[in-house]
Design brief:
Umud Fragment, subunit A; 7-stranded antiparallel beta sheet; about 30% helix; elongated; about 260 residues; alpha+beta; 6 helices; 3-stranded antiparallel beta sheet
Length: about 260
């Protein structure tokens, strides 16, 4: 068995072993299988182009399991604690949408508690932030809210506001109203402050929260599953090609240089 054959055999064995080790480590950290999710829409983008530090179409996101609402910091809570992820206050969560029958990745905006007796909501976390940053039914009472919550000075929205229409949310829930977490895609709120608001997400429907990302490499999965290239930001496609060239080209180039020097 010559040295070149041995070297090739070692590489064939080492690559899957290395991949397995990475996935075992990710599972140990995540507590969920699979520990990764590919972002297939622009709902979390902060602009037409992708950027490092935000969640863009074609990114791969690591999921960290959550056991309860206590493991999640909302946008409103982040305003008071300074907790930020992906260029915005609060956590980004992954949850199962019964309405869309798919997993959604959105930012957790605010936790709401539902009162059956008054058919209203309360948002205790509002009391911990500056009154200039919010309104509820036109005032600053965080309990017995019937109509609307407005969160102000949101930097990645066109209007600078997120408006939560509670009447619409109650109507959508029908005969089973409940409390939960309001979510919104950062990109949806950039287009229209109302379009990205989901139903209230219950604790049982939350898979986990996003922690870390591998930009661009989910593009392979999207193409394989028939997604249009037009859905992917142009600069993401360029960055992905450059990354592939570096990952493949640099080792090959170094190997050729070493072989050339040996022959010489």
């Amino acid at each position: 068995m010559d040295k070149e054959y041995k070297s090739t055999l070692k590489a064939i064995i080492a690559i899957p072993v290395a991949i397995a080790i990475v996935f075992v480590a990710l599972f140990a950290y995540s507590g969920i299988w699979p520990p990764l999710v590919v972002v297939d829409s622009e709902s979390m983008q902060h602009g037409e182009e992708s950027s490092i530090g935000t969640i863009d179409t074609g990114d791969i996101v690591i999921i960290k399991k959550t056991n309860s609402f206590e493991d999640i910091t909302t946008y409103v809570e982040g305003l008071s604690t300074g907790h930020k992820t992906y260029s915005g206050y609060g956590d980004v969560i992954i949850y199962n949408s019964e309405y869309l029958n798919k997993s959604i990745i959105h930012r957790a905006i605010i936790k709401l508690e539902y009162d059956e007796l008054t058919n209203t909501f309360s948002a205790p976390s509002l009391k911990d932030i500056d009154e200039n940053l919010w309104e509820a039914d036109g005032g600053h009472s965080y309990s017995n809210i019937k109509n609307e919550i407005k969160i102000k000075n949101v930097p990645y929205t066109n209007s600078g506001e997120i408006i939560i229409n509670l009447k619409n949310i109650l109507f959508d829930m029908g005969s089973n109203p409940h409390g939960g977490i309001i979510t919104m895609g950062d990109g949806n709120s950039r287009v229209d402050q109302n379009s990205g608001i989901s139903d209230l997400v219950e604790e049982k429907d939350i898979t986990g929260k996003a922690r870390g990302e591998l930009p661009w490499f989910g593009i392979v999965n999207l193409i394989a599953n028939g997604h249009s290239l037009s859905d992917i930001p142009q600069n993401s496609k360029i960055d992905f090609i450059i990354a592939l060239i570096l990952i493949i080209g640099v080792p090959v180039g170094l190997n050729e240089i070493i072989n050339y020097k040996k022959k010489k």
